[in-house]
Amino acid sequence: MQGPRYTTLILQLAFFLFFFVSVIYAQSLPPAKSDGFVYGNHRVDWDAILIEAFLDPVCPDSRDAWPPLKQALAHYGDRVRLIVHLLPLPYHDNAFVASRAIHIVNDLSSPATFKLLEWFFKYQEKFYNAQTRSLTRTEVVNEIVKAASQVVGSSFYSSLVSGFNDRKTDLKTRVSFKYSASRGVYGTPTFFINGFQLPDSGSALDFNGWKNFIDPLIGQKSAKNEENLHFFL
User: Where are the transmembrane segments (predicted)?
Assistant: First the structure.
């Protein structure tokens, strides 16, 4: 008489375990696309020196680090390439919303991605904790949508609104945060060159600082190329 009852319990347990394992497996899957935004629209030289920047759109130090980094990119040209990862710091109340807006804009019009990032750097004080303390999250989102529509074009306004209602953009922003954590990054700005983290995380690096790191690497590449040339002569 107990047989059917125990069979039902076993089947329920088996279903629960299957569901639990499926959820864990799904959460452990890597994203379909690698995290980060590639700066510039020139042809990528995969032999170029790779700079990775972990930035928060409403972080003052990230803002201060951006101009000298752009100066270094202009100075070295195609000898370097940059990927920007967004790390919305939890103690910046509006960092996640700002980062999500950048993900949305990147999906709508990728050339405008860095325009919006620079807009946040220019006007980020509007979104500091103290300045938005009396605003609701919805009011903050509305302000950001208005600003983003000015950057990418007013025709994208409804798409921007829809983007904030799309769970996919929320997940992309979370992936950026988790990716930063997986790399051991907990402050902004943080920089990596060819996969190795630079010292003084959380502090802006000036143009001379970039030259101090990159010039020796450029010299090593030049010496290696000359060595290879002599080998074949």
Answer: none
